[in-house]
Amino acid sequence: MTNGAQDLDHLIALLSKLPGFGPRSARRAVLHMINKRNLVLLPLAEALQKVGATARNCLNCGNIGTADICDICASEKRSTGEICVVEDVADLWAMERSGVFKGRYHVLGGTLSALDAIGPDELRIPRLIDRIQSEDVSEVILALGATIDGQTTAHYIADQLAGVKVTSLAQGVPVGGELDYLDEGTITAALTARKAL
Question: Is the pLDDT of residue 171 over 60?
Answer without folding.
Answer: no
